[in-house]
């Protein structure tokens, strides 16, 4: 009986410690350090990019600033390469991914996502030399065409899945892919619509044709580590607040309906 009581006491002690760990989640850590750490790759216009001063700006940045203000803490932006952004989150290099990440079931196996904050889809930038014969992404499904996207993105996945017969190549950055189409070295570049819209105005005017009707459905969301319901609840409530008090609309208009910010990067 004494052994049983000791065993029960030990189990209860473990439960208390475990409960303490669960309670002391990301929100508590953020409050303790006085800083919200946000991971992003600043190469995805207009969500996150670097201006002429070397500062990271964009839609997600403005949302992160608002988030840190609501928490009453400072904001730290952690620039991270895209192919390592999920591993960096899982090893506690930052608290949340805010980098225009598409919520996919594959990614959801390793991290949790807050409620989506915007819905986008893949579109195609087509070289003007073939624009007359390509009216849809389906027309590119031919071995005679070379189609590209960015490595490790949903654009790459969509191209391989829906345009399987085309010759596919990948690039490390979006800019490389766009410039290859602009210079006529490849036939098409598949990527997220918001980025393609800006890229046409910035580099491709009169040189590429934008097939702007999205051919995929992609909700973008913020990613966090699994097992933290309090942080997930906070993020969802924050999104509900800003989408109903005008904050979200103001930031959206600045980055998606106005092009004044382009002057900061030109």
From TrEMBL:
Classification via InterPro entries: Iontro_rcpt_C, SBP_3_CS, Solute-binding_3/MltF_N
Pfam family, one: SBP_bac_3
GO molecular function: ligand-gated monoatomic ion channel activity
Presence of the UniProt keyword Signal in the record: yes
Entry GO CC: cell envelope; membrane
Localization of this protein: Cell envelope
Keyword Phosphoprotein recorded: no
Domain spans labelled Solute-binding protein family 3/N-terminal: 35-259
Listed CDD domains: PBP2_Dsm1740
Annotated ranges, domain Ionotropic glutamate receptor C-terminal: 35-258
Keywords: Signal
Signal sequence bounds: 1-24
Similarity comment text for this entry: Belongs to the bacterial solute-binding protein 3 family.
Protein name per its UniProtKB record: Polar amino acid transport system substrate-binding protein
Organism: Desulfopila aestuarii DSM 18488
